[in-house]
Amino acid sequence: MRITFFRHSVWPLVSLTLLLVFQGLAAGLAAEAPRKTVPASAPRVALVIGNAAYARLRPLENPGKDADLIADRLRKLGFEVTLKANRELKAMSEDVEAFVQAIKQHGPDAVSVLYYAGHGLESDGINYLVPVDAEIKRKADIAGHAVSVKRIADRLSSAGNRVNILILDACRDNPFPEGAATANALLGLVPMGAVYGAFIASATGSGKAAFDGDNGHSPYTLALAQAIGAPGEKLEDVFKSVRRQVRLATAEQQIPWESTSIEADFYFVQPAPPPSPSAQLLAAATETDNLALFELLVDRFPGSEEAARARSVLQQRRAASADRAPANVSTAAEVLTRARKVRTPDAFDLVASLFPDSPEAAEARAAASRLREAAVLDSAGPTFEGRELISRLQDELARLACFGGQPSGMFDAPTVGGLRRASQLTDEHYLWYRPTMAALRALKKIDARDGCSRQKAAASPRCLRINNEDFCQ
Questions:
Q1: pLDDT tens by residue, 38-76
Q2: Which terminus has fewer CB within 10 Å in the chain: N or C?
Q3: Count helices and strands in the chain by DSSP H and E runs
Q4: Closest to 219 in 3D by CA, of 13, 417, 66
Q5: Quick one: 78 and 198 in the same domain?
Q6: How sure is the predictor about 333, in pLDDT bands with cuts at 50, 70 and 90?
Q7: What is the CATH number of the domain that holds 233?
Q8: The organism sits in which domain of life (predicted)?
């Protein structure tokens, strides 16, 4: 909308004010709109490809077994799986096209997974999957003898559904003979730009080989097979777990990456429904063996199944305890203690609802608010750049007692050192020597009580040289 200002007229100012008000209301409503969760009933389809028997490149030991393992796991999770092995270029292209048509037939709510195990390459910033009949002697051969990952992602996106998951356990070892000109320049897949409706996961980054594994499966596929069966884990959290397990299993020699433009929440295994307030209160009463909590449960939720169990406990105890214990601040403290252990917004909400005027309620409300804010920041939230981003990083580092400098908006040595220390407080991987939104979001989710003041001093320093300056742990 374009607004022209005329001298001696107040109407343009009024129009601008109204415009800003309505924009603010719209932004507020958009921020409060809940993200959609893919229902458990959504159709699930998968294409699993394992390429091992290469004719002209180094053959691989494990992709076939890895593909069998993932196909089995996906079937158990309700996916309709098509399993292919040792595919040539023409067959791989046809497999992808047939899979896209299958997704379309299942409708816009379908969830698709395309898993590939085998050789993969990167050339001039483009990622490729290598069919078993590929004859690649020089860099110029790659585009005509391999399948572009970007093209696969675009084809999946064209199916019109909301969630497509492309998993690439590629770049296994070096496909070329020793001494070949391409031997070291093409390893690994580079992180890709977003493709709408696609979540792309790679076993390793550019310049790195993904381990094929020496126990029948690659480290990446083993971690993936375990992680996708965890109940209540969102798609993004599943791959965070995979990344952590692979990093540890390979002594940090292999770091997986993901790229996503998915807007809905997807669970391989749906989370259990949150416990009701009466169930949470019964759990707190049972854990603490506090009669006052059992009585509070009967009083607040008299018709619940939990209240019936509480009455039974009270009848057994009244012979030994004649006095009725009041539901006082100590009772609130015990429910709060349990909420701190559980660390869910619902657990803290219970404290605030049962003891609204107690000091514990104030802490519980603040804790629930922080957890919900962290959950929003994890997947959405605002983005910051430049000095503003650095200032916010410094504020978070100060909150966690990890910052020894003065907030300046400059990415200086104390900020780098603080990010390095804070990276030890979380399993989330971020680049501690750069100011990034990933670092800010990871810091936001760390409780101040778990900050750097609780860290033990390292036995020996670990240093990294950046711009001729050493930064040590």
A1: 999 999 999 999 999 999 888 899 999 999 999 999 999
A2: N
A3: 16, 11
A4: 66
A5: yes
A6: confident
A7: 3.40.50.1460
A8: Bacteria
Amino acid at 301: F
- Greatest CA span in the chain, whole angstroms? 88
User: How would you class 187 by CB atoms within 10 Å of its CB: exposed for 0-12, middle for 13-18, buried for 19 or more?
Assistant: buried
Q: In which residue are the tokens 């009463």 written?
A: 285
- Residue carrying structure tokens 């001039």: 124
Question: In this predicted model, what pLDDT tens digit does every residue of 179-206 receive, in sequence order?
Answer: 444 544 456 676 777 688 899 999 987 6
Amino acid at 275: P
Q: What are the residues whose beta carbons fall under 8 Å from the beta carbon of 220, sequence distance 6 or more? A: 169, 203, 204, 210, 211, 242, 246, 254, 256
Domain of 302, in residue numbers: 277-376
Please indicate, yes or no, if residue 37 is contained in any of the structural domains: no
Cα–Cα nearest to 129, from 192, 216, 215 = 192
Type of residue found at 445: K
Q: Quick one: 252 and 347 in the same domain?
A: no
Q: Residue 451 and residue 228: Cα distance in Å, rounded?
A: 30
Same domain, 337 and 218: no
Are 49 and 75 in a shared domain?
yes
